[in-house]
Amino acid sequence: MPPTDVIIRTVQPRDATGVADCVDAVARERLWLTATEGFGIRATDDFIRANLAIGNPHFVAALSNGAIIGWCDIIAPRPWPEFRHVGQLGMGVIAGWRGLGVGRALMATALTACPARGFSRIELEVYAHNTRAIDLYTSMGFVEEGRKRGARILDGNPQDLVLMART
Question: Is residue 83 part of a domain?
Answer without folding.
Answer: yes
